[in-house]
């Protein structure tokens, strides 16, 4: 069975050594994620406080580090209520549907390894293995699959609560997440075009030596992916669905105690894992200079975590700075801006790749592609504007009709 | 400010000083005429000022004061005059700290301190009796277990809040229109209260 | 080991499928469908079709059933149905008969195909007879070690990954089917958008404008 096939540890079959290594990796990844979520929540609250000229949590533990744990313990002691009109089974199931995909995405992320001068393997008790829990052939597709599954958690949570605000919030949330999945996949395809493999290890190995996909694919897929991920995670400025001012609590209004803690946990865990995916896809993962010889494997981990911290900072920075997008603005941006942009760029990169293979002049390819993209963009813009004008004319015509109707009837 | 200007602002804020104050370890100083918990004052010779006239109870809009007067025992008078406040209770669940009672009192008996952080935990504790409201022999209010007194909260619980005169005239500025407090003496008037001349004369004749 | 995985997945698939038809609540039925699809995805994995497994989850379980659930939730058909009364008579016996006939036919077909009755490797094993020889993933060397002559850990030529197989056939032999299906889906989307649009708030069927809520006061 070669589901985990690409990891060199499993080449000679699956024996006790391999089982032990797998168990160690799984436990380590789980522990790392839980601690990381705790620290991420503290980091976000502290950083947002600093950006708003105030101290964040400061009293629970040194610099307030234990605040998350205190909040978790408090939530644990709250009353766990299940609304009377709710669908009990689905109500209890939904937080887990939100939480498990977040864990599973992290299994394909390469956390360390020396990709600069080596092939990214480490040696544990004589077995060489990669520093990631699993490296299936379809690594990145697992990420997409789990983002699709995360939609279920949100949707079912809102519907099963049995009241209208959660239902509205969950319908909006799932529509938003489904819309931005398309942009996510298309900008991902640009990376895949470059690396030629779906396996995360191969993607990271392809970027070694500062050939990061950030600049190799142009900046555009990175920007599109970042925006799409922010929308997928329901993070500000796309957090209309859980905004207190709009929908009470959105899909998690009726959840309390541990179930709410699970949603909260799932959201922040998703932030961490998707940041890890961004680092893997666009920033070369553990790629970075080895500053101290002798502990090669450690530097991969250090660089990975430094890059991860940059993206966690960026997510909090977005939250502190940008006002919330209105729902129709959000959907407009997802369908009318991001999808055409990422699709157009993918075609452009494809044209460049084919041109390179067949020896076409790169300048000609670029000029023709830019012209084609510009034309397509203009056509799209004209169509969008025409649609908007038509819609406004319809509304104006309708109100004029109403006015004359009211006058006539009197 | 354009799109990226916003990001520059929030980033720059990271390096600015925080304006959070560490309440409750550190509390900001309160204004001098702050309306806090009330206090029943005494004259410098120790006699109570309250004469049981019930004017404060009459003016209170929240009806939180309950006063009953009684005749002074002839051999050991409690307050100068014929009567004294025998029962005096304020219900702090109703009090809105408007201090109309302080303005109404003819003898400057009821005044206020600067304490507002008193968190009682039962209804019985919320009704302050005369014993709890009366100042001690040093002129300071009694401190109850659930009250959080800080330095400065109990200084000068006096009628000094009536700064220039009962009618606010500039002619009264600099003249102490209040009596001496137990433990403090006569409090100095505050200068610069009113800029223009108002009604009333220094000799106590009210204007028309 | 493979038998154990197959048994568990088959149980999930059959259990989910039974759940879909037996449950009275539409949302529970949709969730059973998701369980079935997951079971099928794992079965794909045991057959070395990893790409199909991932796409099964992404497209089928992650988009199609989500849209099913949208419709169920938004159109309010999430009430429990009354299964006693039937609008058209005779449906259940007819369905039972056709189901049995289909099952028998499927069994016959499977038996005939597995004994080579239909001829040709293509149908029996489901794998193309010839595979493009230049895609041997075992000879790929990691980029950092290119030119260093280091040996790559590999125990013989690996089976070509499922993604490459699917890609090879989609873009060579089945390219027309692929592109026309895409075109068909696009036409369906555009048609749905056009059909669902309403012009100016008017009721398109009767042609009457929306009535004015309250006449204006005079004076």
If you had to describe this structure to a student in words, what would you say it looks like?
The complex is a heterotrimer of chains A (410), B (208) and C (219). By secondary structure, chain A is an all-alpha fold. Chain A has helices at residues 16-51, 67-76, 88-106, 139-160, 164-195, 200-206, 213-216, 220-232, 244-247, 257-282, 296-321, 327-358, 362-409; strands spanning 121-124, 127-130. Helix content of chain A is 68%, strand content 2%. Chain B has 208 residues and is largely without helices or strands. In chain B, strands 2-3-5 form a three-stranded antiparallel β-sheet. Mean pLDDT of chain C is 76; it is low at 120-125, 132-137, 150-156 and 200-219. Chain A binds chain B through residues 47, 49-55, 317, 320-322, and chain B through 6-7, 9-11, 13-14, 16-20.
Largest sheet of chain A: 2 strands, antiparallel
The counted number of beta strands of chain C is 0
Number of helices of chain C: 7
| Main beta sheet strand tally, sense and closure of chain C | none
CATH architecture classification name of the domain at 1-80 in chain C? Up-down Bundle
Give the overall pLDDT of chain A as a whole number. 87
Percent range for β-strand residues of chain C: under 5%
Short summary:
The complex is a heterotrimer of chains A (410), B (208) and C (219). Chain B is low in regular secondary structure.
Write the layout of secondary structure elements.
The complex is a heterotrimer of chains A (410), B (208) and C (219).
Chain A: H1 16-51, H2 67-76, H3 88-106, E1 121-124, E2 127-130, H4 139-160, H5 164-195, H6 200-206, H7 213-216, H8 220-232, H9 244-247, H10 257-282, H11 296-321, H12 327-358, H13 362-409
Antiparallel strand pairs in A: 1-2
Helix pairs in contact in A: 1-10, 1-11, 2-10, 3-4, 3-10, 4-5, 5-8, 5-12, 8-10, 8-12, 10-11, 12-13
Chain B: H1 3-13, E1 38-40, H2 55-59, E2 65-71, E3 83-91, H3 100-104, E4 110-112, H4 123-126, E5 127-128, H5 130-133
Antiparallel strand pairs in B: 1-4, 2-3, 3-5
Chain C: H1 2-22, H2 26-46, H3 50-74, H4 91-114, H5 121-125, H6 162-171, H7 175-196
Helix pairs in contact in C: 1-2, 2-3
């Amino acid at each position: 069975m070669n589901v985990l096939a690409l990891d060199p540890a499993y080449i000679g079959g699956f024996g006790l050594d391999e089982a032990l290594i797998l168990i160690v990796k799984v436990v380590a990844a789980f522990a790392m994620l839980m601690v990381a979520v705790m620290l991420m929540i503290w980091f976000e609250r502290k950083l947002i406080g600093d950006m708003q000229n105030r101290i964040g949590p400061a009293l629970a533990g040194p610099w307030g580090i234990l605040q998350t744990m205190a909040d978790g313990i408090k939530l644990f002691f709250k009353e766990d209520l299940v609304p009377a009109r709710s669908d009990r089974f689905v109500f209890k199931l939904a937080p887990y549907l939100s939480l498990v995909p977040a864990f599973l995405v992290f299994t394909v992320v390469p956390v360390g390894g020396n990709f600069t001068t080596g092939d990214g393997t480490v040696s544990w008790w004589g077995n060489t293995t990669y520093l990631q829990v699993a490296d299936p052939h379809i690594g990145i597709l697992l990420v997409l699959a789990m983002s699709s599954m995360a939609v279920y958690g949100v949707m079912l949570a809102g519907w099963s609560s049995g009241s209208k605000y959660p239902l509205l919030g969950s319908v909006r949330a799932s529509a938003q997440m489904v819309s931005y999945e398309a942009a996510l996949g298309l900008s991902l395809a640009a990376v895949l075009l470059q690396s030629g493999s779906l396996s995360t290890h191969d993607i990271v190995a392809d970027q070694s030596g500062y050939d990061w996909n950030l600049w190799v694919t142009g900046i555009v897929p990175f920007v599109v992916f970042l925006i799409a991920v922010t929308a997928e995670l329901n993070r500000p400025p796309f957090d209309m669905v859980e905004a207190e001012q709009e929908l009470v609590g959105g899909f998690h209004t009726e959840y309390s105690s541990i179930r709410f803690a699970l949603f909260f946990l799932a959201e922040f865990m998703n932030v961490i894992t998707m940041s890890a995916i961004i680092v893997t896809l666009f920033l070369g993962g553990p790629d970075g200079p080895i500053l101290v010889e002798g502990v090669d494997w450690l530097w991969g981990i250090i660089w990975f975590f430094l890059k991860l911290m940059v993206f966690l900072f960026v997510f909090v920075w977005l939250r502190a700075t940008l006002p919330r997008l209105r729902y129709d603005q959000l959907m407009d941006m997802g369908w009318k801006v991001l999808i055409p942009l990422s699709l157009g760029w993918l075609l452009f990169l494809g044209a460049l790749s084919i041109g390179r293979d067949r020896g076409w002049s790169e300048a000609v390819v670029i000029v023709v592609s830019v012209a084609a993209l510009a034309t397509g963009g203009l056509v799209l813009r004209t169509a969008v504007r025409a649609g908007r004008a038509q819609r406004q004319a319809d509304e104006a015509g309708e109100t004029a009709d109403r006015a004359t109707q009211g006058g006539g009837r009197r | 400010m354009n799109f990226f200007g916003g990001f520059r602002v929030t980033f720059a804020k990271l390096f600015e000083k925080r304006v959070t104050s560490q309440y409750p370890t550190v509390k900001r100083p309160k204004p001098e005429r702050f309306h806090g918990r009330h206090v029943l004052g005494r004259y410098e010779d120790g006699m109570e000022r309250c004469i049981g006239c019930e004017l404060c109870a009459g003016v209170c809009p929240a009806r939180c004061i309950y006063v009953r007067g009684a005749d002074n025992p002839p051999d050991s008078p409690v307050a100068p005059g014929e009567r004294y406040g025998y029962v005096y209770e304020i219900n702090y669940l109703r009090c809105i700290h408007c201090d109309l009672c302080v303005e109404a009192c003819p003898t400057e008996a009821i005044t206020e301190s600067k304490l507002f952080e008193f968190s009682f935990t039962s209804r019985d504790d919320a009704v302050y009796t005369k014993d709890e409201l009366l100042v001690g022999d040093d002129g300071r209010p009694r401190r109850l277990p659930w009250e959080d007194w800080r330095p400065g909260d109990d200084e000068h619980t006096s009628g000094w809040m009536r700064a220039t005169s009962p009618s606010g005239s500039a002619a009264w500025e600099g003249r102490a229109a209040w009596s001496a407090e137990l433990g403090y003496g006569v409090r100095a008037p505050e200068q610069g209260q009113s800029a223009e001349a108002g009604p009333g004369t220094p000799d106590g004749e009210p204007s028309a | 080991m493979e038998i154990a995985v197959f048994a568990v997945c088959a149980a999930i698939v059959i259990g989910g499928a039974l759940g879909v038809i037996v449950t009275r609540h539409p949302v529970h039925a949709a969730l059973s469908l998701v369980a079935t699809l997951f079971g099928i995805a794992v079965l794909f994995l045991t057959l070395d079709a990893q790409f199909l497994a991932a796409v099964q989850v992404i497209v089928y379980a992650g988009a199609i059933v989500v849209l099913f659930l949208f419709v169920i939730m938004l159109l309010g058909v999430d009430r429990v149905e009354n299964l006693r009364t039937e609008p058209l008579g005779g449906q259940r016996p007819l369905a039972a008969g056709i189901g049995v006939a289909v099952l028998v036919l499927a069994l016959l077909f499977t038996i005939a195909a597995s004994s080579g009755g239909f001829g040709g490797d293509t149908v029996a094993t489901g794998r193309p007879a010839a595979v493009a020889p230049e895609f041997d993933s075992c000879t790929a060397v990691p980029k950092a070690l290119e030119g260093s002559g280091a040996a790559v850990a590999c125990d013989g030529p690996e089976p070509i990954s499922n993604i490459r197989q699917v890609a090879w056939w989609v873009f060579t032999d089945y390219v027309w089917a692929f592109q026309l299906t895409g075109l068909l889906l696009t036409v369906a989307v555009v048609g749905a958008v056009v059909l669902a649009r309403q012009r100016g708030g008017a009721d398109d069927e009767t042609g009457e404008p929306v009535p004015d809520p309250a006449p204006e006061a005079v004076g």
